[in-house]
Write the structure tokens for this entry.
Amino acid sequence: MAHRLKKEKDYRYIEVGEGKPLIVLHGLMGGLSNFDAVTTYFSEKGYKVIIPELPIYTMSLIKTNVKNFAKYLHDFIEFLGFDSVILLGNSLGGHIGLYHTKLYPEKVKALIITGSSGLYESAMGGGYTKRGDYEVIKKKAQDVFYDPAVATKEIVDEVYETVNDRNKLIKTLAIAKSAIRHNMAKDLPKMTLPVCIIWGKNDNVTPPEVAEEFNELLPNSELFWIDKCGHAAMMEHPQEFNDILNAWLESKKL
């Protein structure tokens, strides 16, 4: 990882740059380094980019759900002393950002979601239960991207280690069930903040129609597509992702 991990109180996080707080939320199998390009770009554009290590596998099993992750995020923002922030979330991170916005709307100035769960039941946990077979896990990891080469050996090894750790696997399945329980369809029409939706046209995990549904249900959203792109646009097409997001933030004067 290119950036140093800070450890304070119960929190581990990356913090780069000075300016408006932009908090980045990783997904279920996503490392903080997935956002290296976002961190570098926006920390030079007048933002303080902060990526917390979410307690996906460290919370007690009974607390392992979307709602408690959103509360953890709230406590983290309070710990940092910010009145309001911009949130950017990929996959489960997008869902946590949405749920946090539902619970604490006054704390969120704007929201960016990419490949987010929250509407689509198959968005997490599916197919990772066949443990032990490295090639099966490798194929699953590659399917996340349009270009399978993006799934480096390091990424595949990390996913393989996760699904072969019984404790982590149980929590992964708990989170998948929690994501279904915490469906956001009824909540989205009440969220009036600006929302930027950036989506891969070839996302197999949360297909394009999920992005369209988010865009229909959110009253103040804009949807942007990235072609030849899977579930993690900020990794697969970092320059295009950053250009789209920067233009949107400038248009909203955020």
The beta strands are 6-8, 11-16, 20-25, 47-52, 85-90, 108-114, 195-200, 221-226. DSSP finds nine helices and eight strands in the chain.
